[in-house]
C-alpha cells in the first residue's frame, strides 16, 4: 500500500555496501508490474531511482494515467533513457552511468495541490533483455562425504574476460581461473577441524592490454593469489574452548613488457592460538555469577620482494626486500556477580601488547658504458635498514555497579581507567572516568504511570600523559608512578562534571 500525499514520499533499499556497486549497463529495459486498486489523481508519476546515493541517481518515470484500474499493467522503460522517461541527477560527482548502483528507491510524485489517499500494488521490479555478448564462464563444484568422517568440497571456475556479471565494472577485465578445496572433519563433535586451499590466477588478454608492448601472451598470470588456511578447536572440557586459526597466503604480481620485467611477491603467515574458559555458575549449588577468561596470541610474519629488471639492458636492475614480524597478545577477564538480589557487580580487565620488528633492504645495479660501447665501470648502490622495535602496552580496567529491584530509583556507578604505554613516542597516557546515573520514577510515588521519568547523571573525567624525555632515566616521573597514579581518579584533576537532569520524553499517544 502506498499512501500518496504532497510532497512525494519514497522508499529506499540498499542493494549493496560494496563501494563498486552493481553494474546494470548490460540490460536494455527496466520493467515493473503495477495494480491500481483505485483511480489515481491525474498526472501522478510512479518513479524508480537507481542511485549511487541520495544525491546522485537516475530516475525513471511511469505515468499512472497509463495503468488501468483493477488489472495488472507492466511498465517498460529504456535503461539508457532513449524513450525520454529518464532524468539524471548528479549533484556531487561526474555522471558514471549505470555501473555503480548501490541503492534503489520507489515513490510517487503528485503534481496536484490537493493530497489524496490511493491504493497501488507493485510487483516484480526487474531489468530484462540483457545485451547480447559472447562470453564464456565455466564452474564445477562438488561435495564428497567420506565415511561420515570427512567432507571435501571443491569449486573450480574459469571466467573469460568477455563474460560480465552484475557486480563487476566494465573496465579492467581479466581472464580469471580459480580453484578452491575445503575439507571438514565431522566425526568428532569435540574436535572440529576444517582446512581450505584456494588459488586465483588473473590474466590480461590481448584485447584488454593497457599498451601495445604488453607481451604476456597468456603464459604468465598477471596476479596469483594463493591461500591455505585452517581452523582447529577443542571443546572436550565444559566451559573450555581451545582454538587455533592459521593462514598462509602468497600474492605474486608479474608485469612483462619490452621495457621492464617486474616481479612483486608478498608472503604472509598469520597464526592465532586462543583460549576461553568460563567458570561454573554455581559451586555446591550456590550461585557465584559469571566469570570468563580469554586469551589470544596473534603471530604475523610477512615478507615482500620486489625485482625490476630492464629488459633491453640486462645490466640494470633494482631489488628490494622487506620483512616484518608482528606479535599481538590480548587477555581479558569479564565478570558478572549478584551477591544479593539488590546488587549487581560487573568488573572487567583487558591486557593488550603489540610489537613489530623487521627490516628493509634495497639493492640497485647498473653498468656504465664508455663512448666506445664497452663496459668501463660498474656502480652498485646498497641500502639496508633494521626497522626499530615498535611496541605498545594497553591495560583497561572497568567496574559497573547497579542497584536492582529498588522502588522509584535505578542507581548505578561506572568506573573506567586505561593505561596506554606507547614505546614509539615513549609516552604513557592515563585517561579515566567515573560516573553515576539514576532513573527517578516519580510516577510510582504519586500513582500515575504516565508521569515522565527523570534521569539524573554526573560524569567526571581525568587524563594525564607522562613522557620519557631522557632515554631510560629512572628518575623521571614516568618510572615512579604509584598504583594511585595509574588506577585512581584524583578529584583535583577532574575535568568537566556537574549534574545533568533530563526528562525522558513520552509521546502524545500516551497522554
Describe, in plain words, how this protein is organized in 3D:
- With 511 residues, this protein is mainly beta.
- Helices cover 2% and strands 59% of the residues.
- The protein contains 2 helices and 25 strands.
- The strands form 4 sheets. It has a 15-stranded antiparallel beta sheet.
- A hairpin with a 5-residue loop joins strand 20 and strand 21 (375-403).
- The longest helix has 5 residues, at 442-446.
Spatial gap, N to C terminus? 30 Å
Shape: extended
Number of strands: 25
Q: Would you identify the regions where 5 or more consecutive residues have pLDDT less than 50?
A: 1-7, 374-384, 491-511
What is the mean pLDDT? 79
Share in β-strands: over 45%
Strand order of the main beta sheet, please? 9-10-11-12-13-14-15-18-19-20-21-22-23-24-25
Q: Total number of helical segments?
A: 2
Structural class: mainly beta
State the order of secondary-structure elements, H for helix, E for strand. EEEEEEEEEEEEEEEEEEEEEEEHEHE
Tell me the helix content.
under 10%
Largest sheet, strands/sense/barrel: 15 strands, antiparallel
Protein traits:
single chain; 511 residues; mainly beta; five-stranded antiparallel sheet; 59% strand; disordered N terminus
Secondary-structure blueprint:
Blueprint lengths: L9 E5 L12 E10 L8 E9 L2 E8 L8 E7 L7 E5 L12 E7 L10 E11 L6 E10 L3 E10 L15 E11 L7 E11 L19 E12 L5 E17 L3 E19 L3 E2 L2 E2 L2 E21 L5 E25 L2 E27 L5 E29 L8 E11 L4 E14 L1 H5 L7 E14 L15 H5 L11 E5 L8
Antiparallel strand pairs: 1-7, 2-5, 2-8, 3-4, 3-7, 4-6, 9-10, 10-11, 11-12, 12-13, 13-14, 14-15, 15-18, 16-17, 18-19, 19-20, 20-21, 21-22, 22-23, 23-24, 24-25
